[in-house]
# Entry
Amino acid sequence: MTNRPLSVTANYVFILLNILIWLAIGIIIAVDVHPALPDIPAMKGILATLSLIIAGILLVLFIFILKRNRIAFFLALAFFAATSLLTIIDDVGLSDIIILVINIIPIILFIKDRAWYLQEKPKINGSI
# Structure
């Protein structure tokens, strides 16, 4: 088995950090402690649900990335690219810049280590 590069491990940490952020945002909105949201319960419910769903989707992608699934690699890359683009399009503040960095680093690491993520797993010869 090929040893995992340090940058791949760092990428795993950033993906897990991203999952934690989405989970925390969902919980913060669900318990109604987010100060900047309007007082529309339906909107808060939708935002909390979407945040938790995104955390779940990213967790599933992370599990498949651990198994070096090609489709999960490309979906995760697309996820981080889309969230980075949406962060840039939004009003940019300090928290947005921090989230943007946390989203761009996995993109860079995915591209840097794409050969490791996309390489075929060694097959065991079935003949004795």
